[in-house]
Amino acid sequence: MNQMSNRALIPAWVEGALQPVEKLEAHQRGLRHKAVSVFLMEGDFLLIQRRAMGKYHTPGLWANSCCTHPHWGEDPDDCARRRLMEELGVAGVTLRHADRVEYRADVGEGLIEHEVVDLYIGEAPQGLEIHPDPEEVMDWEWIDVEDLADEIGEDPSRFTPWLCIYMEKHRNAIFGPRVEAAE
Can 25 be counted among the known catalytic residues? Predict the structure, then answer.
């Protein structure tokens, strides 16, 4: 057996079959793969995070609350809860599966995210304490969803490609009737 941990393997489709693939290889080859995105809300405010500079793609860009890939064999619900704790130090928030979407985006350095994403929404209790892992997250803030849409419209280069796609194409699936999609 090679020294690669199962933790580095994510579910990706290769020649039409779902199988374990090393995460970096999936991005280098642009393979369609499973992912999870979490949106923590406090009313109309979304918790966004700025990705740490040590991330191998899109460092320093703003993203939704938490985004990741399930390990091979890991349930997406479990993955969402695990990464909330690992990235933001957040536990005990009830998550609701909102939708499953697919997108493909160039994330720079010759890497492609081609993701089939399970989207989760969580309503944060007032005063939720955030304790980010500095290797994952360099900053975070609560932002009104309307203001986020405006900021992305003004300067999308500050945000991850997937957050721009979510706000443009999947906004209603994520935020539902609480926020009207921009015309």
Answer: no
